[in-house]
Write a structure and sequence with these properties.
Order of helices and strands: EHHEEHEE
Structural class: alpha+beta
Strand content: 35-45%
Shape: globular
Number of helices: 3
Amino acid sequence: MTISLREITMKTFHECNTISLTGEQTHFVVSNMYSLAEAKADNVFCSLAIYADDQMVGFIRTKKIYESLGFKSTGEICVGDAVMVIEKWEK
């Protein structure tokens, strides 16, 4: 089994929203719908689907750490990851 994180697209948006929380989890996290909307609105969080092989099994929301440190995307993809650069630090 291969576990992977994938971008949530319009094709997978509905599937992500059908993933439900267990009773114990509802006290700790907001719904997937709220998380997706907040990530789109504030552009600080990144929403990713968790896949086991080709089946969506979960959802994760994380801060865009690299962007918050000043990294910028070049638009290139290398081995499935975005290539990012940061300008040289000035002393």
